[in-house]
């Protein structure tokens, strides 16, 4: 199958979060099958961090991308990542600047044009390269206009007449909403500015465009696909459209790259271990991390890790509300950046409870690995969570997640009070009282050891790979192709 992946980020080239992990991992998994030809398109941002052997090189030639009333000269750069052909859309005007989506003062003012250009340039690049995709898989609002461009401007183009589209919602809270004044800049006419197409409460909505024009829609977990249809607070105004398209909507659980996230081979942690040696392995990692971070060196203290974007979505304000109550039994180690208030809250926690808490807002990949390996618990009491990857990584490393039953957390973390059937701890709502009670239960189990270790074994033996999910996507691609041709 000829698969075109279009995304605004992908590991190992550009990554701000789970979106980058997912697009990178999926592309690799698909490309391992010799029956698939996979091309991944990304913007060529200025800042790139990848192994030297993967650094993109200029590709010969140039083409022109329609934008509004004119044409943008466009060039490509190229990298080969395992069996994935990666092409970067090059534009000094739109991408040669610091960061990906925003400057320190806020979102870039021209994100409407930047990602409209990217979406249309991907289609022009495919034609320029003579890569005729059977399916184009788009990810999140930054590629939301691509299905609309394909349908509106390329619907009668023989090159694309057999090309189906699949769109994945990674987080419906971020929709790409802009003023209606953007319409002429991105090349659409007022005929498309209707409630059935691009219009959304008087403005433009790139996510809505994808929901209207894509052949198939997916989300990143089965539970989230239900929540965004029937919970208004998670549907963010698009729940009606999603219900109307429920026959074309599926939830497919994300996976993690188990070659990268493997405590038995991870070179970034202090000591390797597996399911047969986790007791000594995790103890050694805990003691070394306690030393590194200036915590009390004590194997009998529970280490509760957090590796997260600092955002109220993640329920971290609730952790801060009750953390001080557990300082005699739990050490809190947090890594992440984002909301200034939450970051300041964790700094105050460290200042007031030295030796019991540590916090870093400078993201450090090796430190993230060390936190997973050293932690006994992993805190993720999210208010909503489309899928979440951190809880899967934590379980892979034998750190029992403490989560809310929402989205992908509900689909991956199971807790019913019977240790033999549990792989973590779960509460119903992101609530101080519920989290306090659950941490109390975790402390008791940790002290008793047997049940706690049973749950660790359950967590570590879980299959969090992409294999099953990738097969589900391939089946959906076939459905999309059949639907498009009919």
Molecular structure report:
The chain has helices spanning 18-31, 92-95, 111-128, 145-153, 183-186, 206-213, 222-230, 232-235, 239-244, 278-293, 316-323, 340-352, 365-374, 390-396, 407-412, 432-448, 450-460, 467-485, and strands spanning 2-6, 37-43, 57-58, 63-67, 70-81, 84-90, 102-103, 106-107, 135-139, 164-169, 177-178, 199-200, 203-205, 216-219, 249-251, 302-307, 330-335, 357-360, 377-380, 400-404, 425-427. It is an alpha/beta fold and 486 residues long. Strands 1, 2, 3, 4, 5, 6, 9, 10, 14 and 15 form a ten-stranded mixed sheet that branches. A six-stranded parallel sheet has the order 18-17-16-19-20-21, sandwiched between helices. It has a three-stranded antiparallel sheet with strand order 11-13-12. Helix 3 crosses helix 4 (145-153), helix 10 packs across helix 13 and helix 11 packs parallel to helix 12. The mean pLDDT is 95.
